[in-house]
Structure formats: C-alpha cells, structure tokens
C-alpha cells in the first residue's frame, strides 16, 4: 500500500508546482529559447557527425600520400632486392627516417611474399604482415581503417616498383586512429564555443522579440487575448451600427452584420476591393475617403445613412454607419405638421381679425357693407383653393400650398401658382416633394417680406416622369458669388434663433433632390429677386397603360 500524503504537504506541493506561464511575453520567450537551443544542438550535431568521417578520410589520404612518397624513392626498391630483412638494415633505417619525419605511426616495407623489411617494432621484421597485402602487390593503391599489430589505424598501401616498373614489394603506412580521435575531441570545445555564442545571440534576439510583443499585446495572456477577440466579434456583430474596416489598398478587412444589411453586402465580400462590391456613387466615395467630414449623409438601397470615417495607423480606415431612414421620415412628417400648424395659426389669426371687423360693421348697422365683406373674404379663399386644386392634384402638396397661401396673406405677401402649372396625382414620394416645396416657400416668404411689392410664385410642371419646380420671390436675391454656398448646411443670411440653428432648409432641399437623382440651382428672377429651380427625374409613377382618363388628364 502507498502511504497517503498529508493535506498540508499536498497543499505545499500544489503551491510550488511549476506550471506553464500565462503571459504572452513569458510563453514566447520560452518557446523561442527552446527553438534556438534545439536548432543550435541540431546544427552542432549535424556538423560533428560528418567531422569524424572527414578526419578519417584526411588521415587515410595522408597515409596514402606518405606511402606514395616512400615508394617513389628509387634506391628503396634496389636495396629491397639486394639486401636481407634485418633490424639494422638500410630498408629499416630509411623507413624509420621517413616515419619520424612525417609523424606516421608506422612505415612498413614488404616484399612480394608479404614479409616485413621494416617495422616500428624490430622484432616484427622478417615476419609476414598481419593484413592481406594482395591488392597492393597486384598494383592497386589502398586506403582503409583497419586493425593491425599496433591497433586500429588509418592505412595507405601502394605497390613498390623497380626502375623497370616491375612490382617488387609494397609500402604500408599507418596513422594512429587515436590521433584522429584526439583531433576530433580537440575540435569539440571550439564547436561548443561557437554553438554557445550562437545560442546567446538567439536568446538575445528572442528576448527582444518577446519584449516587443509584450508591448504590443499590453502584457496580456493568450487567454485574455482570445477572450478579447471573442468579445470584439460579439460586439461588432451585435451592435445596431454598421462597421466596415478597410486596409491601405481599399480592400474590405471586416464587415459586421448591420453593415451587411445596410449596404446589401455578404461575408464573402471580405477581402475584395471596395469598388468591386459597391456601385459608384456617394456611398462609395464616403467609404473610400474621397468625401470627408463628420456625420456625412448618404443613401444606399433606399436607406438614409449617417457615416463617419476614421483613418487607422496602417493607412486603412474604419467607417461606421447609422440608419437614419426612420428619423428622416419622422423629420419630414414633422416639417409637414409644423407647416399645418403655422397655417392653422395664421387662419385663426386672420379669422379673428375678420370676425372683429364683421362685428364692428354689424354694431354700426352697416349691414350691406358687412354682407359685401363676408362675400369677398369667402370668395378669396375659395378662389385660392380652387386655383391650387385645379393645377396640383396631389392632396398633400395642394394642402401645403393652400396653407402657405394663408401664412403668406398674414405676412403681407401674395402667393400664387403659375398659370401653366399642372402636376398629376402620380408622385412617387409625396412627403419628399412636400418637404422641398415647404422649405423653398419658407425661404421665399422670408426674403419677400419687406420688399416693395412682396410676391412669391410657385410653378409645378410634369414632363412624362420628370417634375420641374420653380419658386421665385421679390426679395433682394442672392449674389452670384454666394450661389454655391447657399445649399451648404449651416449657411444662412439670418441670425440663428435661440432654440436652434439656421441653414438647414436649403441643404435639406439639395439632399432630397440629389437622393432622387435630381438637382437644384438658384438664379436671378426677372425683375429682381431669386428663383430656385428643382428638377426631379422619375418623380412620377408610370401611368397604367389603357387606363381611362378624367377631365383633368388623370387615370380613373
């Protein structure tokens, strides 16, 4: 049975257990140190492994070269043929001289029978060699690592030839294998020093890289980074605001779910150039940065979007979108409601004045004058309403013009509809045109007040599916150098009110006109004043083919 570990010792063991570090800096440093150490050890091993074979080859070639030099001595073959193998003979003397000079372990000279004529040990002279000399005696040169009487050595064997070329013996030279191993062992410390230097450089580089990574990751753990990425994905795809990230080359790096909905894109568009997934237009110009500014309005797929673009350090940008479609619709409805309230207020004020006048005439018993006053007042309103409804068949727009006529009367300005005006009841966006006409009439009334003969004229014409709108006034007009800036948001000739700001009416007119593919411009009115012209292509719905027409040209 194994002994149970006391709870106190188990807690201590758990507390001192060495675990894998959590910080990115520590993990990267350890991994890079392990890689550098492994590469250094592998490189050292790969270098030392062939070094032994290389040293063996060098030793064998050296032994062969010494044997060839010895066999090239002309007197050695002649002496071998005319003397006997003795420890103090001339062959032994010459062989020992060569051995001491070259540092070889032995220089053995043998005859054709394999009998030694020289040897490091004089007692071996006259005996047969311990290895087979057949190859060398037959004329072949040999290099090998072999065992002999002196142990393991690197050998070189060559034939010994007389002047006539006849083989009379052989020369065998040996290099001690211990010297080869000593050279190998002697080179190891130097190799380890180089390996240690390379490892130190690798460790320093690993530390520098890890420190840089630590600064870039704010010393977070991998688990923290993973959690942040998960939270980022959840936030980007969960918020109700479109987000598009672009790189320095205009390619889409990221697009969240709301941006896909607002821009009619798909996840497969990630990585593609912006111009390849969006049609040319203001939306593309805003995303690419060709149009700059804050809270830029753009229209995409019938949606009114507010965009903001923020450049990034790498040359790209992050663009955010907010859907303002419902807000714009509510704003237009508010503009119409405000116009209706102004008209009712003006009518109430005018009605009160007329009632006071009528009461005074009755109290003065001027009954005929009272009858004439009532008839005239009712007739003016009836004529104005009839003129509008005869020329403008859209009920929203007609109601606006009737209401503005009442406001104009209260402010001392005459408002009329041009005689050649004719607008059928086929508007594609009636609230949009109501907003355009209402803002232009408000500006025209403000400009005409105070002129010598204050007058505002509205002309509404239709050509196939195009609507042409002209609003002219008898005001001071707009200088030629200011006609390009009057449609800029925030620009106005009047003092801003205490509760808000001016300079948004004409900017809204241009924005609504351009959203429908139209245009707006301002010019001088004949006789003085300003004239605003709005052209709205395809502002009318197509007339059903074969539909019967009424007396006014409208389909039943």
Tell me what you see in this structure.
The chain has 556 residues and is an alpha+beta fold. The protein folds into three domains: 20-237, PAS domain (Beta-Lactamase, 2-Layer Sandwich), CATH 3.30.450; 239-323, Beta-Lactamase, CATH 3.30.450.20; 380-536, Histidine kinase-like ATPase, C-terminal domain (Heat Shock Protein 90, 2-Layer Sandwich), CATH 3.30.565. The chain is built from 15 helices and 14 strands. It has helices spanning 7-15, 24-71, 74-82, 90-102, 134-137, 177-216, 222-238, 257-263, 274-277, 282-288, 325-363, 367-391, 395-410, 430-448, 505-515, and strands spanning 106-111, 142-148, 151-161, 167-176, 242-246, 252-255, 296-300, 303-311, 317-323, 414-417, 455-463, 466-473, 519-524, 530-536. Helix 2 (24-71) packs antiparallel against helix 6 (177-216), helix 12 (367-391) runs antiparallel to helix 13 (395-410) and helix 14 (430-448) runs antiparallel to helix 15. The longest helix has 48 residues, at 24-71. The chain crosses the membrane at residues 29-51, 191-210. GO terms for molecular function: ATP binding; phosphorelay sensor kinase activity. This is histidine kinase.
């Amino acid at each position: 049975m194994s002994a149970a570990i006391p709870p106190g010792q188990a807690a201590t063991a758990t507390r001192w257990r060495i675990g894998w570090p959590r910080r990115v800096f520590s993990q990267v440093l350890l991994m890079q140190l392990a890689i550098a150490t492994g590469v250094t050890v592998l490189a050292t091993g790969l270098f030392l492994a062939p070094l032994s074979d290389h040293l063996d080859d060098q030793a064998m070639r050296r032994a062969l070269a010494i044997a060839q030099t010895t066999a090239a001595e002309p007197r050695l073959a002649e002496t071998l043929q005319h003397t006997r193998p003795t420890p103090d003979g001339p062959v032994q003397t010459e062989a020992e001289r060569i051995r001491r000079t070259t540092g070889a372990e032995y220089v053995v000279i043998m005859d054709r029978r394999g009998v030694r004529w020289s040897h490091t040990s004089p007692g071996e002279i006259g005996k047969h060699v311990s290895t087979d000399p057949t190859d060398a005696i037959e004329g072949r040169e040999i290099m090998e690592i072999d065992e002999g009487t002196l142990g393991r050595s690197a050998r070189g064997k060559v034939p010994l030839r007389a002047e006539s070329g006849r083989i009379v013996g052989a020369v065998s030279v040996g290099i001690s294998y211990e010297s080869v191993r000593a050279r190998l062992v002697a080179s190891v410390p130097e190799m380890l020093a180089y390996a240690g230097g390379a490892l130190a450089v690798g460790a320093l580089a690993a530390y520098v890289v890890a420190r840089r990574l630590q600064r870039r990751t704010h010393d977070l753990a991998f688990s923290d980074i993973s959690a942040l990425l998960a939270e980022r994905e959840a936030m980007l795809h969960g918020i109700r605001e479109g987000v598009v990230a672009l790189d320095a080359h205009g390619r889409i790096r990221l697009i969240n779910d709301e941006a896909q909905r607002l821009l009619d894109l798909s996840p497969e568009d990630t990585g593609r150039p912006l111009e390849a997934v969006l049609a040319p237009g203001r939306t593309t110009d805003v995303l690419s940065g060709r149009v700059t500014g804050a809270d830029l309005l753009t229209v995409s797929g019938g949606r009114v979007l507010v965009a903001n673009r923020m450049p990034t350090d790498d040359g790209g940008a992050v663009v955010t979108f907010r859907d303002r479609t419902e807000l714009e619709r509510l704003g237009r409805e508010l503009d119409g409601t405000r116009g209706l309230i102004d008209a009712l207020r003006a009518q109430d004020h005018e009605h009160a004045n007329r009632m006071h006048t009528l009461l005074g005439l009755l109290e003065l018993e001027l009954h005929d004058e009272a009858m004439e006053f009532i008839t005239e007042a009712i007739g003016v309103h009836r004529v104005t309403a009839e003129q509008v409804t005869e020329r403008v068949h859209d009920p929203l727009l007609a109601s606006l013009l009737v209401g503005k006529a009442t406001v104009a009367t209260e402010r001392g300005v005459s408002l009329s509809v041009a005689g050649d005006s004719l607008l059928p009841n086929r508007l594609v966006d009636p609230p949009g045109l109501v907003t355009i006409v209402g803002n232009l009439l408000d500006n025209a009334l403000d400009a005409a007040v105070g002129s010598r003969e204050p007058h505002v004229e509205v002309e509404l014409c239709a050509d196939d599916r195009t609507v042409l709108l002209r609003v002219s006034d008898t005001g001071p007009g707009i200088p030629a150098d200011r006609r390009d800036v009057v449609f800029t948001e925030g620009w106005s000739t009047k003092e801003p009110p205490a509760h808000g700001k001016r300079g948004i009416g004409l900017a809204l007119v241009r924005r609504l006109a351009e959203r429908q593919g139209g245009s707006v411009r301002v010019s001088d009115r004949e006789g003085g004043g300003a004239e605003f012209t709005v052209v709205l292509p395809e502002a009318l719905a197509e007339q059903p083919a074969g539909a019967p027409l009424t007396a006014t040209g409208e389909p039943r």
